[in-house]
Amino acid sequence: MITFERRPDDYRHWRLTVEGRVATLTLDVDEEAGLAPGYKLKLNSYDLGVDIEFHDALQRIRFEHPEVATVVLTGGKDRMFCAGANIYMLGASTHGWKVNFCKFTNETRNGMEDSSRYDGLKFVAAVNGACAGGGYEIALACDEILMVDDRSTVVSLPELPLLGVLPGTGGLTRVVDKRKVRRDLADLFCTSADGVRADRAKQWGLIDDAATPNRFSELVRQRAEALAEGSPRPTDAQGIRLGPLERTADEAGLRYGHVEVSLDRSNRRATITVRSPASPSPQSAEEIFAAGDAWWPLAMARELDDAILSLRTNEPALGLWVLKTEGPVENVLSAGRALAANRAHWFVRETIGLLRRTLARFEVSSRSLYAVIGQGSCFAGLLFELALAADRAYMLSLLDDEDAAPVIVLDEVNFGLLPGVDGRSRLETRFFGHPGVLEAARERAGQPMDAEAALRAGLVTIASDELDWDDEIRLAFEERASLSPDALTGLEASLRFPGAETLQTKVFGRLSAWQNWVFNRPNATGERGALKLFGSGAKPHFDWERV
Amino acid sequence: MITFERRPDDYRHWRLTVEGRVATLTLDVDEEAGLAPGYKLKLNSYDLGVDIEFHDALQRIRFEHPEVATVVLTGGKDRMFCAGANIYMLGASTHGWKVNFCKFTNETRNGMEDSSRYDGLKFVAAVNGACAGGGYEIALACDEILMVDDRSTVVSLPELPLLGVLPGTGGLTRVVDKRKVRRDLADLFCTSADGVRADRAKQWGLIDDAATPNRFSELVRQRAEALAEGSPRPTDAQGIRLGPLERTADEAGLRYGHVEVSLDRSNRRATITVRSPASPSPQSAEEIFAAGDAWWPLAMARELDDAILSLRTNEPALGLWVLKTEGPVENVLSAGRALAANRAHWFVRETIGLLRRTLARFEVSSRSLYAVIGQGSCFAGLLFELALAADRAYMLSLLDDEDAAPVIVLDEVNFGLLPGVDGRSRLETRFFGHPGVLEAARERAGQPMDAEAALRAGLVTIASDELDWDDEIRLAFEERASLSPDALTGLEASLRFPGAETLQTKVFGRLSAWQNWVFNRPNATGERGALKLFGSGAKPHFDWERV
Q1: Residues 6+ apart with CB under 8 A from B272
Q2: So what's the ipTM on this one?
Q3: What are phi and psi of B324, to 5 degrees?
Q4: Chain centre to alpha carbon of residue B276
Q5: CB–CB of B370/B393 below 8 Å?
Q6: Which residues of B touch A539 (CB under 8 A)?
Q7: What's this model's pTM, rounded to 2 decimal places?
Q8: Chain A residues near residue B435 by CB distance under 8 angstroms
Q9: Residue B379 pLDDT > 80, yes or no?
Q10: What is residue A234's three-state secondary structure?
């Protein structure tokens, strides 16, 4: 069982140092400390374990070091930035492992761009040595790429010529979409194993600037400080310590303080229940700050994040995630009011950021998501985002006992505070092409809606009365669990993102789909495929048919 | 060897009737006339042969029936519109065949939307009976979907529940992106084999209107005539007859009047050479019309279209297409002037439309495209679009003999007359994010540029002098031909479409990628996969892991 919690004292692969507004995160991989046996993490290459520490370090910078406005990413070995994902690890992995690994690493890199865009935490890649494949893709996720010009260091995306696969963490998309490298030059770059030195890299737009070795650290310092200027991150705030998660795990599932995951393996289903806080949220920034990592929106988001990652990695056969909530509606709305009112405070802003990134994980998870809005639930405001992230929402209608009937409530949180990976609020995406319905929903904000009202407003998929409810839900679960897992993955990835695309939806929807296809083809992963044979000295054997 | 030319007299599956402004194209599949042995085309299902006739019929409506402003698509069998692609054909096909089949059918449906958007030819689906899968996807490509309300007819996308695959011709994308069906309702629709009757279909946005059987033809007539109003298609013009293509084919390749394809199987390469017209183009609409299907832009486009389709279907192992041109530059520019000046004339507009759709085929072809701009070439205006469609362009620099040195020329055709599948001119896409470079190119329009000038302007990838030219080209070809065909397909599909996406790029880039992955997975096509076992009575066996 893979776990995703780490503590800085236990990092094996990263060093974090903070100096004023600038943090430096140095990748210095312990080649003996791979997550699984069978490979060495040579040349500063990474596996899931290295990336889990990376994810943890970024999270701690956001919360524990609020004074940091720029993060410099650099390599800790001699003339070596990062060689990308470890190829022997990839070659030995199952299809599912590779795809899940790429998803998590993509999310971490997207998370850097998310923090840069929404929260003013900027990133500089200080490419102080060889930078290949996934290494260059880490750099691509930064706001600026600076490179040492020593006449030997190159940046490269050699996956295609060396391994017969695509760069797996957004490289192709970011080269043309973000860095705006002309597409024929991108084609040259991505089909050559040799890479590009500083002068040409700058000319093509692959990097922003370069300097000779003796001037490099000064260039990095200058750019890092320039990026920090104007950041809304505070200059003199104390951080919030992220304590260990309250978490127990057994055969039945995972239990946290506010989140519970129950596993039903025979029916290939996991139920994720999020509980509302037991009391109303503090409303002032001071009180919220004083609550620290125990503040419900933060504590719940951390638990939910951990639960999603754990399910994706450890329970691939549970294809249906049922999303439930439990507890007093009013306390969720109270938390939403606190989030909206204090969004300018760094701690609240970062909590919103974590909620945003956590909810975004649902949208790119290859699992069917059903929200079940039953008695005692609290799908209100922030927690209604769970229903909006779901592929379907079922809601119980209790005609005979109006007081006990579940309700949903929209609040300010639903109208732009937590955009999805497509850059829009989930309500906007839901009502894509129907601005009048969106407007009508806005007018209902704050009003509890029962199942009939929610159905009329287009906010739930199915409303079912007491007599039918159990059968309705049971049949819906059974039916979903009977369908082809692969076809569902493709379906969900297509239906979840109507309308305009973003870099992130393109990375997950277009690039990852092609990568998954390539990963699954004998030319890459067959016994004589290029990925499989890498390093063996044997030449790959290709079926030359273009498909 | 599959050929793509058809004549209406020989249609086996379609009937075309024209009445005033409205053409009716009736699908009445001859179940015994499948393109390959081994399956019957029951229930008005289609295979590639049915779709080739469809493509031909649309082409003839555009050119031979200019008075037609609306095409009604309907079914010719009792209470049967179309059951989609033939499942037994799909189950028995190779991966490559399925993907290529879906590509061509997608292009034909996209071509309907292309004609509707740019040229005012509108489409109405008259769903007069069962309409499933690819049948409903034909309807989705129409401007309006009308459905008979007889309490039994349904529309459905049953691919996922019945076959474990995705709807393969844009269904998922069009349901949410074009028809703007709410995504949870789309999820219900696409996971149910039962389909949806008229009342609910209208409520969800799956159709535009419905009528009882005795009022249905009147509804169709009304809507077809309403759509025809305001169409720029002429009311009283004579058509242009599309005569048979001049085409010879042998082991060495394909030869047409203006296009030649030479096959180099040992090097896995095809060279497509387009010759400029032997004389300047007529410049008045009358003269152009008098030239008819011999007018070079039309004749060349038809030949190029046929060549692309033939190569894709018959020569899958030729992974590199080298694009060349030959002849006097001035005559290409003359044709471009005629196109631009007379674009309001229906015949010229339709010729531009065919050029637009033909060039768009390059962008979605899973082949590497290298333009080679050598001596005697004429990459000017319209033919420079070939270089812009290519993944790379190599250009010869002849420093010692300026008069013989090849030049490129931009003209009005390059600045918006022929948008690609992403809806922008190829120059805009090339210079995505660099408006200044685009503007500079515009200022150079009309001026011949040699290799150095073209390189400086960002219009070619590599300029090479006489001494290096042969080696440069040879190495470039060899290197490309040595790379993994699958990885190249994924790479090209990612790099060719920077920036904003359109329905078409989403269909090809996102949906097709997922479909290709699903097609390649044992859950669909393994010995116990759902697609393979369909109709056998045996239940599919799924690996339940979600990837």
Answers
A1: B259, B260, B261, B304, B307, B311, B321, B322, B323, B324
A2: 0.95
A3: -125, 160
A4: 23
A5: yes
A6: none
A7: 0.96
A8: none
A9: yes
A10: coil
